[in-house]
Structure formats: structure tokens, C-alpha cells
TrEMBL record:
Annotated source species: Belliella filtrata
SMART domains, A to Z: PKS_KR (SM00822)
Family: Belongs to the short-chain dehydrogenases/reductases (SDR) family.
Signal sequence, start to end: none
Name by which UniProt lists this protein: SDR family oxidoreductase
Pfam hit, one: adh_short
All residue ranges annotated as the Ketoreductase domain in the record: 7-205
Length: 239
């Protein structure tokens, strides 16, 4: 997939953060981009910003990754607008961090439903289209998908699941000519978990860095597949 002009990508959770950075990078390559958000207003606001930055086409879709029907509707809208789907990027995610003593059933369920089931629903909804295009499925996991930490039981469980799910799906789908990769970032300067990015985040991975990484993956020779990529800040602050 080395000529990205007019290729079509669906990015879940693309209204801000990592998804927004990936959308910006792919628009700059001339791709046709669809971003989803649970809020149509947030999707529309992101589209307005992105339209000024890229040379590709972009649409915003209200969708909830926790629902297969919602994801199928999003894919249908992409096909109706662009006629095909070449890349699905399962990026949408949330974080609830608490000791198992304090973690609620609702927090657990929302984390698993969004971060893990949402990835499953994204590939199930887009699978036929990706088979047709011999496309690419990229998941955004985390270093928390191999490294556990206190107060991270729900988040760790979801991201360990995404990492394992992605690798198994890679083995399932490569016979169809579909490539599957998972990107596992460490600290990223985003709005995740109500954080407000600032100059103090300059040491962190930036969203444009992950956008460039996705471009590099899509431009890689089809014979080669980086299936699992761990990404860390080069120089984190000293403890």
C-alpha cells in the first residue's frame, strides 16, 4: 500500500489525541479519512480543524465502538461516501485507574467494552471490505498491554487483551492478504484520562510521531510486516 493517495481509512476515536494525529498525517498523504466519535459535534469540530490541515477528504461519523451495529453503520457510511475501505485503525480507548478494592463494576465493564470489545467490533464490521481491498488493520494498544502496574487492573486487562487479540488476528487474516499490526505507545501527550497537554509534556511521544509511524507502516513493502511495535519516549524525566 505504498501509494496512499485516495486510499480510504476509518479511524475510531479520531476527534482528538492519537486518532486526531493519525488522521492529520494520513490526510497529508492524500488519503480519504473517516473519523468516529461518540459525539457528532466532536467529530464535526475535528473535521473542521483537519480540513484546514490536509489535502485529502475527511468525514466525521457518530459511532460507538461498544456496539457492533454502530460500527457496521460507520463502515457503511464510509463505503457510501468513498466506495471502499483500505485501512481500519482501532484507536478509541478510555482509562479507569483504581485499586481493585475501589474499581467499580461499571468502570470495569466500560473499560473492557471500549478498549477490547470495541477492537473486536471494529474488525468484524470492516472485515469484508478489508478482504476486498487486501487492506490493513491497525490497533492501538499500549505498553500497558505487556507491563502491569498497580491500580491498572481494568486497563491492563483490556490492553493485554488488545495485544494478544491483534497478534492472533494477524495470523488469521494474512492468508487473505490483510496486514495486521498493533502499536504500543508509552507516555503520549494527549487528553487521555482528562489530562491537558502542555509544554511540560514535551518529553512525551507526540501525536504527530504516531501519525508518522502509521504512514511508515502503510508505506512498507507488502512483503514485510511489523506486527507488534513498542514505542517509548527517548528521554523520560529522571525519577
Amino acid at each position: 500500500m505504498q501509494d496512499l493517495v485516495n486510499k480510504t481509512v476509518l479511524i475510531t476515536g479520531g476527534s482528538k489525541g492519537i486518532g486526531f494525529g493519525i488522521a492529520e498525517a494520513l490526510l497529508a498523504e492524500g488519503m480519504r479519512v473517516a473519523i468516529t466519535s461518540r459525539s457528532q459535534k466532536a467529530a464535526d469540530e475535528a473535521v473542521s480543524k483537519l480540513e484546514k490541515l490536509g489535502k485529502g477528504e475527511i468525514i466525521g461519523i457518530e459511532a460507538d465502538v461498544r456496539s457492533l451495529a454502530s460500527q457496521e453503520n460507520a463502515v457503511s457510511k464510509v463505503i457510501d461516501r468513498f466506495g471502499k475501505l483500505d485501512v481500519v485503525i482501532a484507536n478509541a480507548g478510555i482509562g479507569h485507574f483504581a485499586s481493585i478494592e475501589d474499581l467499580t463494576e461499571e468502570q470495569w465493564q466500560e473499560t473492557i467494552d471500549t478498549n477490547l470489545s470495541g477492537v473486536f467490533f471494529s474488525i468484524k464490521a470492516g472485515l469484508k471490505s478489508l478482504k476486498d481491498s487486501k487492506g490493513y488493520f491497525i490497533t492501538i494498544s499500549s505498553l500497558a498491554g505487556t507491563n502491569f502496574f498497580a491500580n491498572g487492573s481494568a486497563y491492563n486487562a483490556s490492553k493485554f487483551g488488545v495485544t494478544g487479540f491483534s497478534q492472533a488476528v494477524m495470523l488469521d487474516l494474512r492468508k487473505h492478504g490483510i496486514k495486521v499490526s498493533t502499536i504500543m505507545p508509552g507516555s503520549v501527550a494527549t487528553y487521555f484520562n482528562d489530562h491537558q497537554p502542555s509544554d511540560a509534556d514535551a518529553w512525551k511521544i507526540q501525536i504527530e510521531d504516531l501519525g508518522q509511524m502509521v504512514v511508515d507502516l502503510l508505506n512498507m513493502n507488502p512483503r514485510t510486516l511489523p506486527s507488534k511495535i513498542e514505542v517509548r519516549p527517548t528521554m523520560p524525566p529522571s525519577a
